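EI: anyone free to look at a 676-residue chain?
SC: sure, send it
EI:
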Amino acid sequence: MFLALPLAALPSAQQSPPVQPPAQQPPAQPPQAQPPAQPPSGQQQPPIIRRGINYVRVDAIVADRSGKPVLDLTQDDFTVAEDGRPQKIESFAVVKIDEVAQAEGGPMRAIRSDYDEEREAARPEVRMFVILLDDYHVRRGSDQAVRKPLIEFIQNQLAPADMVAIMYPLTPVSDIRFSRDRDSLISAIDKFEGRKFIYEPRNSFEERYAYYPAATVERIRNQITMDALKGAAVRMGGLREGRKSIILVSEGFTSMLPAQLSDPIAAMPGYGNPYRGNAGAPPPTDTQRMMADSDLYTDMRQVFDTLNRQNTSIYAVDPRGLGVFEYNINEGVGLQEDANALRANLDTLRVLASNTDGRAIVNRNDLASGMKQIIRDASGYYLLGYTSSQAPTDGKFHEIKVSVKRKGLDVRARKGYWAFTTEDVARAEAPSKPSVPTAVATALNALAAPSRGRPARLWTGVARGDNGATRVTFVWEPMPAIPGEPQGDAPARVVVTATAPDGRALFRGPVPAGPAGGSASFDAPPGQVQLRFVVEGANGEVIDSSVEELTAPDFSKTTLSIGTPRVYLARNAREMQALMANADAAPTADREFSRTERLLVRVEAYAAGETPALTARLLNRGGQAMADLPLHRADAGPGAIDLPLSSFAAGEYLIEINAKTSSGSAQQMVAFRVGR
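SC: here you go
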């Protein structure tokens, strides 16, 4: 292929500086004049971790002519050159995994927490693997064929200390969890189901583009899988320094669909496509294919760059084994076009593997032997590091050549790296951003509380009541229906029970639904209040329940305090006028709005002997001020903020409300999201 030639040179690992220094200093390396110590298994010394803008790390796999690993070399046996110029090796380590000693050492510690994961990943004898089950690029049927080799790999090839995570293209990076529980890993593999060329949406994210053209959806799927590869590499790179492996189960990326599958609406196969099943459809031109390949390989280069920075290799496994056809016979794709597509898709797997120092396990029915090679590569290698004498900041590719002085040995190492640009260096060396203030983080946490799957939104606020009591207001709203998801019973009312710490009932009663939910208020003594909410359907059946612990402030004794800000939603000018005229209107429990809407925020501040001065600011999610907000107040009444959202970009924001008197100040924050 035209673009495969220049991209065969791979980007590799130039390291970015860490955000924070390591918590512990690793043990020092032995002097260069001495051979590396070979400690007993389980006591292997971790490599020195050095980082910097110009520090380059490369791992080298050395084997003899029979393919047997050679692990008795010293630092003096290696030479490293960058763009033909010799480099000084500054760090050197031999990584060798003794599986027999691990098996004899008894059971390994289970991974039950983030702390366990980080501690175990830092051990040099632990190998790390991510198995990416690329359901977007695996056909139905091929998924069944690959399950057995993967399960045998889990059962027979892994050492007791090995850590494995299984993910899909849409798995969030935060959900990538490593495990030693072989049964759970096998169970996850058993559930693998390919969806190649099947565009029926399975979640709200896929619903966003399900009705795009099939060619567009295929490009989106390519990008999602590539982002998953990058995310997995970054996740593993944050856990350890040494070599890491991603096992990509995929049939390869499709740069261009044939006319027979290029449906105008992906979720409606064949609709509006005159070439569906027609073997006489015109094939794509060379120019069209070249442009599509160019876009695909440009995206793949970003994958190479990220994985090599994180010292992570891709082992691409084609589940079809010895593939003969790319498309099914009933799809009507011509033999020549089918052969070209099969070759192009397999080339994407080969390029991914070769440019990350991995292997492409393709065109073979015996996948087990290829899986064994993955283990061999991760079981013995050399980890070398040097500071580039050229210190490039040109953003260009720089070739690395690793060689050994001993004759008759084969060396596999990364071919090079893409240097940082001047802008990259400036960003990396810039001081870290200040941490988010605690008040901002607390407000955003309330915004991030999960609501999916719940039948109603709830909000609770406090204000000054009568005779020293605290007025507690409760509001609930039914959750809107989500298209494409099954709908449960509609909520008809919420039963609220408020109790004091001594078990005394403060309030109990149903809050029926009004035009947009319901609200209720009651007075409670200052102190702890437990609120229990039971959402019921029209026939009294319990749909949902929750408990909230509330601290009712003593507004009569504090020098200065602010009640809970109340947010009201208006969709037009008439609704806004009605809200401003009605001081008893119920606030909204929602905190996600669209740019066509308008907010009214009311807030009360209390102080003894004087009227507090109120001000308000708009903040971004980092806590930085964006603008001062006009706050209108009549005499000593509540302050009001009129906030149109038409000029807001999609994102999360906060309203900071400050009250001030001669004796002190107080603050409240309200977080909300724009983008619906």
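EI: Residues 1-50 have pLDDT under 50 and may be disordered.
SC: 👍
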